[in-house]
Amino acid sequence: xNLYFLYLCFIYVRVANSGxxxxxxxxIRCLHTxxxxxxxxxxxxxxxxxxxxxxxxxxxxxxxxKLLLIGIFISTIGYFFYIKLELSLNYNFLELTDKxxxxxxxxxxxxxxxxxxxxxxxxxxxxKSFRNRSTISDKHYIEWTKDCEKFRVMRKYLTxxxxxxxxxxxxxxxxVIHQKIHSFERxxxxxxxxxxxxxxxxxxxxxxxxxxxxxxxxxxxxxVIVSSKQERVVYASWSxxxxxxxxxxxxxxxxxxxxxxxxxxxxxxxxxxxxxxVRKLKVLNGKNNLxxxxxxxxxxxxxxxxxxxxxxxxxxTKENKEAPPVNTPIFAGGAYIVVCRDFVRYVxxxxxxxxxxxxxxxxxxxxxxxxxxxxxxxxAPGSVPISNRYDVTDVNSISxxxxxxxxxxxxxxxxxxxxxxxxxxxxxxxxxxxxLKWILQQPHLFANKFDSDADYFVLYCLESYLRHKALAxxx
Length: 475
What we know:
Elements: H1 3-17, H2 21-37, H3 47-59, H4 61-88, H5 99-102, H6 107-111, H7 115-125, H8 128-131, H9 138-144, H10 148-154, H11 164-167, E1 171-177, H12 181-191, E2 197-202, H13 208-219, E3 224-226, H14 238-254, E4 260-265, E5 268-270, H15 274-284, E6 289-293, H16 301-304, E7 305-310, E8 313-320, E9 332-340, H17 341-349, H18 351-360, H19 370-374, E10 401-402, E11 423-425, E12 428-430, H20 436-440, E13 446-448, H21 456-472
Parallel strand pairs: 1-2, 1-4, 2-3, 10-13
Antiparallel strand pairs: 4-9, 5-13, 6-9, 7-8, 11-12
Helix pairs in contact: 1-2, 9-13, 14-17
Keywords: Glycoprotein, Glycosyltransferase, Membrane, Signal-anchor, Transferase, Transmembrane, Transmembrane helix
GO molecular function: beta-1,3-galactosyl-O-glycosyl-glycoprotein beta-1,6-N-acetylglucosaminyltransferase activity
InterPro entries: Glyco_trans_14
């Protein structure tokens, strides 16, 4: 008897008992597969033969009594083991824990900002044995995803909604990536839920093995797609915005039920469970949430001059751009947005939105003014008025938590947030384990930046914490 398979079946039987349709289906499949594995196949499809066999059985009273006693005995034993599993499982199989990692870092202490444990974790990160550990490569994912059911079980994906509230409030995600397959897959696993929809844009410059691995992962889920149009993404150029717009279009056409659109990149990670995200989006009540504020003078050159791509880099020219095709100011913002479905339709179909999009294509870092300006257009779904009283800073927008070098310091002396506990890339903090307690105290949905090559433990503790919390919140 395949005890491991029955173990999985019992987990999903519990889901079936809670009324989840996915659990019911899986339980039936478990029983059917196990019976076939053990050799319990019907000998004939002929109904007359079956009735005849039944009649012979009942005529043979002694044999029937023996079968009945055996059935009662097996049922009793089975029920005993089921109760034992019911009391002991508590969904432990779905927890994202690794005993090898737990020996090197105590996440419970790190979440409490225990300085001794944080120092110990940082020390373990630089040891030769840890740095030389085997990593999961493109080839691993290519091989694993040849058997999708095994992949989903092995990687512990939640293939059923954890609550009715989540099930009736699907979210659409655009994820723009170009490298580090393991980081991408961990993020996807942390935000995955079967009622949501995911579009993955892979940079044309990515390695062929990376692209193949992403396609393999996407093929294992009905609600995960690879963008139908791929861009060759250049930093701070229009191609980064176009990648998101490509996914917007694919997601808009894929399903009409999702409520909100959120865009992500490869170094983002959730800091809320799916249920917490759903509840924050419901509070918006159809409004968008993104950074949009008055344009600083020093940033105006980004859209006042024509920019061109030269040798895979964006460069400013001396040529002046024509005036923007809007009756509002150009607003400053960020690349990360949380917008309602109707706003996505507006971006894809509205002629006025298309004029601003066309005008923005030869500007520097257009995503840092395009979304912010569209959010202030009269009549745009989910928008806010142009009055500066409606300005939203990156701190107040729930879309992304980013810690900038020049705003770090002692909060008691006026700094926006404490110093980065990791390191900086382009003045942005790449979080370390010491940042984790502070991160989880913030109201944002996602945080940026994370790099598991620089600090493996911060992501491990974060994803373990979120999974445990999600299971605890389950209906």
